[in-house]
Amino acid sequence: MSGTVSLDISSAVAFVTLSHPGKFNAMSRAMWRELRAVFASIQQNSALRGVLIRGEGGHFCAGGDISEYAAFRFDEASLRDFHENDVWGGLQAMLDCDLLIVARIEGHCMGAGVEIASCCDLRLASDSARFGAPIAKLGFPMAPREAALVMRAVGELTAREMLLSAAVLGAADMQQRGFLNQVVPQQDLLPAVEQRLQAMAVLAPRAARLNKQTLRAMSRVHETGVVPRDSYRYADTAEHREGIEAFMAKRPPFFG
Hints:
The protein is α/β, with parallel strands linked by helices.
């Protein structure tokens, strides 16, 4: 079995589950392709408010499925295809998603797991979760775009520690370093995630999507210095008016 990435939808939330029994949800090539397809589907669903991504069986994701590596890692062209199409295709689909993505992290979050978590907007973890990218022990580096993604999310010093010394860090340490929004005991993780999702459900959905688009654009502004021309196109929308009018009337907003 090569593992699966499944999608379930409930109450306008997309639940994405990484599942690879017996391998702590390590990502196979098929799973990377499924991740891309799942998030492409989510992006096209205008009824959704947010996404929760989680692992099955008490772990988030232990990295890549090493049992597959001999079939393609020793040829430059096939190795490039794996990283630039399979892996980056899945990660880019997450980065392109206009919905709030919440990661529920427990157990192992290694290598590919850190990369997937790095694409999320909020990261909540159990206090027993462990993080790292000890691929130096396997004799290869992290692919360039994946390394840049992780470095932006965890910080340069932490990325260097993970990649150059194969460090494995605890949840409390990763929260202190700014990678995790919240760390709770294992038994409190599900209620904490549910509370975040409930808080999200009452917010303006169009504004949330526009914020995601703005944040994505601003990362490009940092490189180019060009502000998108349509940044204020939302001015005359019903959602914008409702938010302001509700505040002025001292009542809760209703966004439908």
